[in-house]
Amino acid sequence: MRKEFVVKSIDAAPDGAPYVVVSLSSIKDLKEGTISPQSQLGGPKVMGFTNMNDMMKDLNKMLSGGGGGFGMQSGLTQLKLEMHEYKELGLSVGDKVFLELTKEETLGV
After folding, report:
1. Are 3 and 12 in contact (CB under 8 A)?
2. Are residues 67 and 87 in the same domain?
3. What's the total number of domains in the chain?
4. pLDDT digit string (tens) for 27-60?
5. Cβ partners under 8 Å of residue 6, min gap 6
6. What separation in angstroms does the CA of 88 have from each of 18, 38, 40, 45?
7. Residues pairing with 5 in the sheet
8. How far apart are the C-alpha atoms of 39 and 36, rounded to whole Å?
9. CA 58/CA 95 separation, integer angstroms
């Protein structure tokens, strides 16, 4: 399986380790507009509410990642690359990349 992505962001390792986290957005999501302009900018999503019940529902959604708050943003694929891999690829934000997944064929036991 081969999928097409665009590099959305490149971030340093949160723990200071020698790797980077590359966030990818699907070309299909970008074309269909399923990623909101706010999430494309990487900013936080503000959730409004009118009563306490709505606030609790929105808070649960935000904490679980459905609202793009503290959890992983929906529509993103993230890769952890070692520094030498990152330098070798020469990636920058906006680059089009392809990910190919293959399953190893094993014969016998």
Report:
1. no
2. no
3. 2
4. 877 776 655 444 444 444 454 556 666 655 655 5
5. 24, 25, 27, 30, 94, 95, 96, 97
6. 14, 31, 26, 34
7. 26, 97
8. 5
9. 34
